[in-house]
Amino acid sequence: MVTALVALLLSQDAGAGFTLTVKIEGLSAKTGKLFVSLHDKAASWPGKSELAVRRMAVDPADTVVLENVPAGTWAVSVVHDVNGNGKVDTNFLGIPKEPVGVSNDAKGRFGPPKFDDAKFKLERDMTITIHMI
Predict the structure, then answer these.
(1) The dihedral formed by the CA atoms of 44, 45, 50 and 55, expressed in degrees to the nearest 10
(2) CA–CA distance from 15 to each of 18, 52, 58 (Å)?
(3) Is residue 3 part of a domain?
(4) pLDDT tens-digit profile of 75-99?
């Protein structure tokens, strides 16, 4: 009976996923929306958020919590739509004029950061910090 109870508890935990807390530093304003995207592969990274595993639009906050995230390799992108027009404003070269940030604070060269530079392994509840630029 004890073995069955332990097996039941383990199976419930395994299916529930983990909590990923994203601390966001460097928000310039509390206006507009934060667009937070959770990616599991380079094909959706970072400019194709419609292909992300999970997308959220939330009021600007220093912390965003994603619940029930399965174990695996992930990358997170955050865009602060300061003016609330529903998109990332860019200059004529395509460089964002609004704050953006990604997991591992990965930097891009002549374009967005690579998925491999932003990815991390989620195997337990964890907190990551993203610095907006």
Answers:
(1) 120
(2) 9, 21, 26
(3) no
(4) 999 999 999 999 889 999 888 999 9
Domain count, the chain: 1
Separation between Cα atoms, residue 133 and residue 115, nearest integer Å: 18
The tokens describing 22, both together, are 């994203």
Task: Read off the tokens for 51.
Answer: 């292909």
pLDDT digits (tens, 9 = 90+) for 51-68: 999 999 999 999 999 999
**5: in domain:** no
> Rg of the chain over CA atoms, in angstroms?
17
CATH code for the domain in which residue 31 is found = 2.60.40.1120
1 occurs within a structural domain: no
